[in-house]
Amino acid sequence: MTEAKSIDANLTPLPDKVGVDGLEDKWRAVWDDNGTYKFNNTRDRKAVYSIDTPPPTVSGHLHVGHVFSYTHTDVIARFKRMNGYDVFYPMGWDDNGLPTERRVQNYYGVRVDTSLKYDPDFKPPFEGTDGKKIDAKDQVPISRKNFIELCEKLTAQDEKQFEALWRSLGLSIDWSQTYHTIGKHPQRVAQKAFLRNLARGEAYQKDAPGLWDVTFQTAVAQAELESREYPGFYHKVAFRFEDGTPIYIETTRPELLAACGALIAHPDDERYKQYFGQYVYSPLFHVKVPILAHKAAEMDKGAGIAMCCTFGDVTDVEWWRDLNLPLRSIIQRNGRIIMDVPDWIENEEGRKIFEETEGKTTFSARKIIVDHLRESGDLDGEPTPTKRMTNFYEKGDKPLEIVTSRQWYLKNGGTDEKLNAELIERGKELNFHPDFMRVRYENWVHGLNGDWLISRQRFFGVPFPLWYPVKEDGTPDYDHPITPSEDVLPIDPTDDVPEGYTEDQRDVPGGFTAEPDIMDTWATSSLTPQIVTRWEEPGEENQAIFNATFPMDLRPQGQDIIRTWLFSTVDRAHLENKCLPWAHATLSGWILDPDHKKMSKSKGNVVVPDKPIKQFGADAVRYWAASARLGLDATYDEGQMKIGRRLAIKLLNATKFALAIGREDENHHVAEAATATWNPADVTEPLDRAAMAKMALVVREATAALNSYEHSKALEAIEDYFWQFCDDYIELVKNRAYGTADATGNVPSETAVKSARTALGLGLDAFARLLAPFLPYAAEEVWSWMHAGEGSVHRAAWPTPDVYEAAAAKVSPELLAHAGEALAALRGIKSKAKVSMKTPILSVTLGVADDVRESIQSALGDIAEAGRVVGKISFAGALAAAKAVKATADAAKDALDKAKAETEAAAEVIVEESELGEPPAKKPKKK
After folding, report:
1. Residue range 499-503: mean pLDDT, rounded
2. CA-based Rg of the chain, rounded to a whole angstrom?
3. What string of DSSP letters covers 194-219?
4. What is the DSSP code (8-state) at residue 725?
5. Torsional sign, CA 745, 749, 754, 760
């Protein structure tokens, strides 16, 4: 209903009893059968609204946080659909990556051994371990291909759980547009994008020190780091000059003494300026190392001078590069000390000490080295406890090591000032909601210190589409990768053979070898806009979808992955498509438990999402989620869900009441279907027009809020007026709507009756549509009563203010507020006297401000009937009311301006004096 014209509502028989239970199953089936949310792809780009929906990590663990941000997105999707857009709203599954591998290892009790061949008849030792972690030594080794098959099998099961959750929540997803981050289509997109990055020089490989997770045996990117406090000990250790004079450093990692290449102090540190350029010998190993200056040294940390070991932390890498220090790596990929004494240790005693540490963990090696330092006298005092901030992989349990290895990198502005500036500008083009999140993006891009490491030494992911020639000595020629043509993608180099070679040339001199690494999961997820919009997929239909949906309109996501998913997606679209991937980004906050702690599985404070849905209903859970503002944390609050359930039930009851007027038989059952005409021109009474005037304001405010992605602001405006409409307006006009005689015997005119019924119909019709994005099940139910056979409310037009402005005929919306205050004042008399609300008021004098009196008088009939006033209503002078206003305002003088205004408004209608009649006789109780 977007025009001011007659609206015929084909009314259906109403249920005798209404409730929200069962609505999810009822309407979900109808939506599926009717294709209510299907993307039609029949419009040009301007008529389409496309959403880059976050693909949840399929890990088998559902979290109430999953329903939170997805509800925010769904509200916008439904709003845009009702505004006439063809909404492209797919759902994806983030299948690959370490979380999936770890889950598969524990679920089936297996691990990968790349030396094993594929077993087509393999059966895992068990399925499901009740969440227990299986030690690696107890896991059955299997081939990479067998492992990938188990990953695919388990993710398919997990996806069904997630889909069931999304469907029960009422997400208006087009399930025919479902995608994955692994599979032939996404692999083709990811491999094609990578090959183009490679051809343009944006992707490159190099041997370099990088962060390494010893548990997962893979390199880790800067964006995946998590700094955590880690307990340790400071050891005060002596390096010595040629004459034996000591110079002390303090270190938490004495096990790296053998890897030391220099001592470093700040160039302005007066304590060490005299030593710069001199040499000292390391304790135990007697290796000669220089004392050098670097501005990254911290004068106030420890002794102010530190050993640079290659590598103990990222600062060591910086010093190593800037000062051109020797590479002395002693940590293997498995986190243990190397098995051979390095050739830079020439001292015989030092070589024997190192042999004691060979193959040991860093913890065991540390103990050996500290014992020897204590014995040699190079340990000054005993180690002192400390806590230090250490880098962890965000999904790992052990501190990261820095290991030198060959990896693939993608340019992201970390080493290219021009690209960095371009990506900063892209961030300025993007509309962030809320806008303060923009600074997180800019801080991240400004702080990049290296390109994006995109290779992983794992198994379940998109393989790099590369092979390498094998030289005559049997080593791979990494400088000359062999690439496939785009038309044969996707490929798996471990199974497929490059053009011009045969399978029997694999891994032999003169032949070829496959790139064993896979792409980081973010390297695939960063291409979700290209994946879902069918970027450069063959066929006219795919091209049409791409043209209609890309660049996309919205990226909704969590605030914690701005640095990973949001930034990496901007980077990929900038490099490949020379544009932003979407126009808007909405960022949600965290879900907190009742103690205001972030919910997480590790803390054991997670609520399974289907529990509140079953307990309170999907609409109630959506109400709680939609009440939270973007960018701010929200507490899990079942009290809010109860309010949401009450709101949904009230919508059902209020609508049934309005539609049932004039259609009930003597037993109060609703008669057969009838036709009602809700023509704005039939709204003639001042109070009815005031209700429509307020509706116009609310529609305007809610529309503006949703267009600005402020769903919580829109819900607040709609809900506030809905309760006013029910508690004030319906109570004031229900007797007139029924057409019954008032307390004095006067019968309202047909025009007055029709005015009330029309305003009720128009109002509740509007509320059904206004609340549809938030309470889709209850809204659909009441819509079916009002508009049977006319389709879903979710395909209906969003309300526009003009209809209600036409019905308002320039009456102020404040009339409804003033009439409500008057009714409250009249009822307050009875509450104070502790008598029934049906008790008649014989006479009453109201103190009313001068500018309100005329407004009150225009609705006096409805006020008197609702308040059961059988005598005269008199008005006191403006002076009496003004005194009351002043007294109330004086009492609230320290309140905020808004609170003062509300207090004064509430005092515009007060009871000066009154006289009550006899309370109605109580009906005898049935025996």
Report:
1. 96
2. 36
3. HHHHHHTTSEEEEEEEEEEETTTTEE
4. I
5. negative
pTM (two decimals): 0.81
Residue pointed to by tokens 């006033």 = 869
Query: What 8-state DSSP symbol labels residue 515?
Result: -
Whether omega for the bond prior to residue 490 falls within 30 degrees of 0, making it cis, is: yes
Q: Degrees (nearest 5) of the Cα angle 225, 227, 232?
A: 130
pLDDT per position as a tens digit, 166-224: 899 999 999 999 988 888 999 999 999 999 999 999 999 988 787 888 877 777 776 67
Lowest-pLDDT range of 320-324, 442-446, 792-796: 320-324
Enumerate the H helices of 414-509 as residue ranges. 417-429, 438-446
CA torsion angle 37 41 45 49 (round to 10)? 10
Give dist(CA 219, CA 340) in Å, integer.
Answer: 23
Work out the pLDDT band at 409, boundaries 50, 70, 90.
very high
Question: How does strand 179-180 pair with strand 92-93?
Answer: parallel
Cα 639 from Cα 641, distance rounded (Å): 5
Question: If 0-12 CB within 10 Å is exposed, 13-18 middle and 19+ buried, where does residue 879 land?
Answer: exposed
Q: For residue 56, how many other CB atoms are within 10 A of its CB?
A: 19
* 481-488 average pLDDT score: 97
* DSSP code, position 500: T
- Say how far apart CA 224 and CA 452 lie, in whole Å: 11
- What does the block give as tokens for 124? 């895992």
- In this structure, are residues 482 and 468 in contact, taking their beta carbons and an 8 Å threshold? yes
What's the Cα-to-Cα distance from 390 to each of 109, 253, 314, 394, 400, rounded to whole Å? 31, 12, 10, 12, 8
913: confidence class by pLDDT, cuts 50, 70, 90: low
Contact 89, 39 (CB under 8 A): yes
Least confident of 593-597, 628-632, 918-922: 918-922
Neighbours of 38 (CB within 10 A): 16
Burial (Cβ within 10 Å: 0-12, 13-18, ≥19) of residue 473: exposed
Q: What are phi and psi of 111, to 5 degrees?
A: -150, 160
Measure CA 920 to chain center.
Answer: 57
144 vs 730 pLDDT, higher one: 730
Nearest residue to 64 via CA among 587, 585, 615, 554 = 615
Spell out the residues 6+ positions from residue 132 whose beta carbon is closer than 8 angstroms to its own. Answer: 106
Residue 810 in tokens: 């320039």
Angle (CA) 142-148-153 rounded to 5° is: 110
Query: Which amino acid, 920?
Result: P
The DSSP code for 462 is P
Structure tokens at 286: 């007697």
- Nearest Cα to 225, choosing from 388, 389, 98, 391? 391
Neighbours of 264 (CB within 10 A): 25
The segment with the largest mean pLDDT, out of 45-59, 150-164, 698-712, is 698-712
Contact status, residue 414 vs residue 448, Cβ threshold 8 Å: yes
The confidence band for 744, taking pLDDT boundaries of 50, 70 and 90, is low
Beta strand segments in 17-120, E: 48-50, 86-88, 92-93, 110-112
Cβ(658)–Cβ(652) under 8 Å?
no
Mean model confidence pLDDT for the chain = 87
Give me the amino acid identity at 522. Answer: W
Structure tokens at 749: 């005119």
DSSP letter string, 403-424: EEEEEEEE--SSS-HHHHHHHH
pLDDT of 501 above 50: yes
Integer CA distances (angstroms), 571 to 456, 578, 807, in order: 19, 10, 52
* Residue showing tokens 């299948």: 95
Helix (H, G, I), strand (E, B) or coil at 353: helix
Sequence length of the chain is 927
CB 3 within 8 A of CB 802: yes
pLDDT (0 to 100) of residue 3: 38
CA 885 to each of CA 38, 818, 854, 879: distance values in angstroms, whole numbers, following the listed order: 56, 14, 18, 10
